[in-house]
Design goal:
By secondary structure, this protein is an alpha/beta fold. Helices cover 49% and strands 15% of the residues. It folds into 2 domains: 57 residues, no CATH class; 101 residues, 2-Layer Sandwich (Zincin-like), CATH 3.30.2010. The protein has 6 helices and 6 strands. The longest helix has 26 residues.
């Protein structure tokens, strides 16, 4: 089976499916090619299943250029309004909002408390969008995903776990 390989200073192997539907193997620098190939062969059924899932997901979220443009236009005003609402509710200040085309991450909060959202988030239910907004605002206080971070989110969204699942 064909796959992409990335070697790095790591102790374990990791397997995922890339945007090109090829398996991506991350392996330790000194691991033998033979061991890597055995690992890939051992997980062949999982790889095939994940490729099918990824194709179905991509088809489900495929957009026409017009739909994409519409979502991009809606993203900044809507996400700004929701961020302002929750920032006020949570007593937080952020340093601006930027809309990106990120595919793998819905949002991020910089060290300087600037928030980025992917316009792709606009394809999800409003409850899920609000979860991402609160999640990123929570990073203003907690720069990690520890217990206190999630307790803080839960104060404002008691059902945050349900909302988070909507993003999967």
């Amino acid at each position: 089976m064909k796959y992409k390989l990335i070697r790095s200073k790591r102790k374990t192997m990791e397997l995922s499916i890339g945007d090109d539907f090829l398996p991506l193997v991350k392996a330790p620098l000194k691991m033998s090619t033979e061991d890597i190939e055995k690992f890939v062969a051992k997980h062949e059924k999982w790889i095939e299943k994940q490729i099918i899932k990824k194709r179905e997901h991509d088809e489900k979220f495929a957009l026409s250029p017009e739909e994409e443009t519409m979502l991009k236009e809606k993203a900044l005003p809507y996400l700004t309004e929701r961020t302002e609402y929750f920032a006020k509710l949570m007593g937080l200040k952020y340093n601006g909002i930027k809309i990106t085309s990120a595919k793998k991450r819905f949002g991020s909060c910089s060290v300087k408390n600037s928030i980025c959202y992917s316009w792709r988030l606009m394809q999800y239910p409003l409850e899920a969008i609000d979860y991402v907004v609160v999640h990123e605002l929570a990073h203003i206080i907690y720069k990690n995903h520890g217990k206190d971070f999630y307790k803080f989110i839960e104060k404002y969204l008691p059902d945050y776990e349900k909302r988070e699942k909507l993003l999967k």
